[in-house]
Design goal:
The chain is mainly alpha-helical. It is built from nine helices and two strands. The longest helix has 18 residues. It starts with 5 loop residues before the first helix and ends in a 32-residue tail after the last helix.
């Protein structure tokens, strides 16, 4: 089996519908992709309270990241008078696409960026995972020991050897 041409295998665009028009976001350059990955990693590190590389954040602040991740779709959106929230949501969706994949970008887009809409409710998570429908009763013999726990107030008897 021979390798097929990669450009024929990959769908390298992201199509975003806004106000009756579909904007096509082209695949970013390797430079933009790497910078976006670094920025997202730095943001995740900062969110977790970690030390952030100031160079990464400085580079991202210096450039027009939204224009870079949207490519030609950015100018089309501006020319068509797309609102700021729509342009911002489009750019962040493109960043999710770049950093993760098209399926993650679609979930983000359809949730309108709301984390509460991204996380399924408890019932949906259980249905997908096949988890138990209820908590076992206290009398359950689900592998727990029936031996009583030691009483910390009562000293243990010591044996001499």
């Amino acid at each position: 089996m021979a390798f097929e041409a990669l450009d024929e295998l990959l769908d390298e665009t992201l199509c975003l519908p806004i106000g009756g028009h579909t904007y096509t976001v082209p695949a970013p350059s390797a430079e933009v992709g790497l910078r976006t990955q670094a920025l997202i990693n730095a943001a995740a590190t900062a969110a977790d309270g970690g030390q952030v590389d100031e160079q990464v954040l400085g580079d991202a602040a210096e450039r027009d990241l939204y224009r870079d991740v949207l490519g030609t779709a950015h100018d089309d959106m501006v020319a068509d008078g797309v609102t700021w929230p729509a342009l911002k949501h489009s750019a962040i969706t493109a960043m999710v696409w770049i950093a993760q994949d098209k399926a993650a970008a679609e979930r983000f887009w359809n949730a309108a960026g709301d984390p509460n809409r991204l996380a399924p409710n408890r019932e949906a998570r259980r249905a997908r995972s096949g988890a138990a429908k209820s908590t076992p009763s206290r009398g359950s013999t689900s592998g727990t020991s029936t031996r009583p726990a030691p009483n910390p107030a009562k000293p243990r008897a010591r044996t001499r050897r």
